[in-house]
Automatic annotation (TrEMBL):
SUPFAM superfamilies the UniProt entry points to: alpha/beta knot
Descriptive protein name: tRNA (guanine-N(1)-)-methyltransferase
Organism: Promicromonospora thailandica
Enzyme Commission (EC) number: 2.1.1.228
Catalysis performed (reactions): guanosine(37) in tRNA + S-adenosyl-L-methionine = N(1)-methylguanosine(37) in tRNA + S-adenosyl-L-homocysteine + H(+)
Keyword Methyltransferase among UniProt keywords: yes
Pfam families in the cross-refs: tRNA_m1G_MT
One BP annotation, GO: tRNA N1-guanine methylation
Top enzyme class: transferase
Length: 241
């Protein structure tokens, strides 16, 4: 998979050399390229922004600079991702869809954002454009949001995660529940014991216990996820909880 990130702060993306994403790059699974938007400016000051039409505070990024940059970077079949606090909230479902793209291009805005015609123009040209927020808070720009999305997507690309089974049971997976609590050695720590059932070796009882804890935890922390559950996927014991 190819991933391109365009930003006026390319150094922000240097952490992509590390960890799982870094290893995937070394192994050739991920072709990741970071670009400086200012490389596409033509004036002496390398200007990327201007004042908003209609007035108001802050600066808006110019569509003409973004246009030449994106025309250069976008390949056929690409999805264009514009991180913005005004976007749809990014979820595991978006990550799954994005993991199937041949190329993802992240356009990182700063200031008050990118001139709205940029997203409109590429949508009109037939490109899948995703304006996505990573949560209901405001960051200084799209760089950190891009890092979050790149990590979420990269771990879904086949070959990226050592044990694909670890993707199955995790929170926000198909079950629509948060993950159950997990424990490891030592069995007793700080006067806290691990739940006995986990030592029983009784597979069915362990499964039941884990599902109950997942349901309990989700009800407590994410009632919205419980409300969204498909009742047909629940069994009798779920409903008795
Ligand atoms: N840019 C600034 N805030 C953001 C957010 N919450 N999500 C995505 N991009 C952003």
């Amino acid at each position: 998979m190819r991933v391109d990130v365009v930003s006026i702060f390319p150094d922000y993306l240097s952490v992509l050399d590390l960890s799982l994403v870094g290893k995937a790059r070394q192994r050739g699974l991920l072709d990741l390229r970071v670009h400086d938007l200012r490389d596409w400016t033509t004036d002496r000051h390398r200007t990327v922004d201007d004042t908003p039409f209609g007035g108001g505070a802050g600066m808006v990024m110019r569509p003409d600079v973004w246009g030449v940059a994106l025309d250069d970077v976008l390949e056929p079949g690409a999805q264009l991702v514009v991180p913005t606090p005004s976007g749809e909230v990014f979820t595991q479902r978006h990550a799954e869809e994005m993991a199937t793209a041949e190329q993802l291009v992240f356009a990182c805005g700063r200031y008050e954002g990118i001139d709205a015609r940029v997203a409109e123009h590429y949508r009109d040209a037939g490109v899948t454009v995703r304006e996505l927020s990573i949560g209901d808070y405001v960051l200084n720009g799209g760089e950190v949001a891009s890092l979050v999305m790149i990590e979420a997507v990269a771990r879904l690309v086949p070959g990226m995660v050592g044990n694909p089974e670890s993707l199955v049971e995790e929170s926000h997976g198909a079950a629509g529940l948060l993950e159950y609590p997990v424990y490891t050695k030592p069995p007793s720590w700080a006067d806290l014991e691990i739940p006995e059932v986990l030592l029983s070796g009784h597979h069915a009882r362990i499964e039941r216990w884990r599902r109950d804890r997942a349901l309990e935890r989700t009800a407590e922390r994410r009632p919205d996820m419980i409300a969204a559950l498909d009742v047909a996927t629940l069994d009798k014991q779920d409903l008795a909880l």
